[in-house]
Amino acid sequence: MTAPPRRHVALLASMAGAMLVALDGTVLLVAQPGLQHDLGASMAQVQWTSTGYLLAVASLLVIAGRLGDRYGHARLLFAGVLGFGAVSAGIALAPSIGWVIGLRAAQGVFGALLQPATLALLRLTYPADRLGTPVALRTSAIAVASGAGPVLGGVLVAHLGWRAVFWINAPIAVLIAALTLVVRPPAPRPAPSQRLDVAGAALLATVLVALVHTLAGVPAHGWTGAPTLLGLLVVAGLAALLAWHERRIAHPVVPHAVARSVPVTASMALLLVTSAGLFGALFTATFHLQDVLRLDPLASGLRVLPLTVLMVLGAPVASRALRRYGPRRVAIVGTALLTLGIAGLSRFDDPTSTWVAMGATFAVVGAGFATVMVTATGTVVGDAPAGYAGVVGGLKQTAMNIGPTLGIAVAASVTGLSAGGPAVPGATPAPGMGLALLVLAGCAALGLLPAALLPRAHATGQARTNQDEPGRDRRDPPPTHRERRTNPTRCERQRN
Question: Mean pLDDT across the stretch 457-467?
């Protein structure tokens, strides 16, 4: 298969894989009430159908990326998507809530395998200076899946029951696996630090499990509760041990070339704080719309719909702006829009607020987050050496999993709401609603700091060439005469 058709198939497989994961997460929210009633589960058990998946996927994303760098991302995507579909079918047949929780955790393992691979495929099949458009299309696809999930889930649950939302994943997974077999991306030369540090990987997974579990418990225990303080202490101790271990060994689980890359680390921080602001705001707004303004789910969804629309339409526009103005300026503008949009939502605590004004504010939030997503993802994937595309993709997805958990924890602690139970219908507007949105706007505004550290413009020329050679720093000098004799292939690439 020639390069252009291979790129198109890789883009389709990447978009479909990302949409499968996004769709699964949103339809589950609609299926949980029926699942609870059918299996006689408690609210805490229903929560674990989400928490178990989140713990598994967040803890293994970076490790899965490293495995993809070593064994091939097409293989990881193939295994991940087939496993994801097979386990999803198993959940549809589950006889009890215990089986559902266990299988959801297993589904998280396969979700971790496929998510970094969807980004790495783009890095391996597209030139670094052409990544903007495929990344934008992938972002739009995720927005479509996230927006369509509740609607599709509602139709399936209403007519076929909650098990149907898991059955539908199986045929989609088979189709994506078939696409993966066709892609056959070019295999980069293995990077010098491809050996997996098992001890470091175990420590990293433990840190992430402890962090996500602690943040998920904040709505129930608060930030000053004993479980939260103990969890944060454990996370700090394990993180210090991991940092000490990583400095001592030659082949850390997060390669030094990645950890020392300012564009990569700045993009991770940007995605972490902005996703925390966005999802915390959505959590707060959902409670406010339904339990304070007394809107039904359909009316609430229509108020939020402009956010999804602007994410879909804004991603291609952000891609063009990224090519023209560079990552730094575009990221700053996107973060500013997101911050202003979240802060603007705090003004709509009156039942007489017009839906036009609220919809326009949600549109600003969607445009801002789409801009941030396209810029940060394009920067982090484009800046990563091809040999490290998987681990960088894993880091990006980890930030996108931890950020929402952090945002919901912040929102729930400020408003006094619990993620596990609804507020009292008809309740008077809580003063914490507006305050929570302002706090979350401040959280998103923190993204201006890492945004200012992004490159002014995409690297070109020599930097791009060195970027395609894993293990070689982009700032390395041109090859010497001796290198020209011993490594003519690399020198020829540099001349081209």
Answer: 44
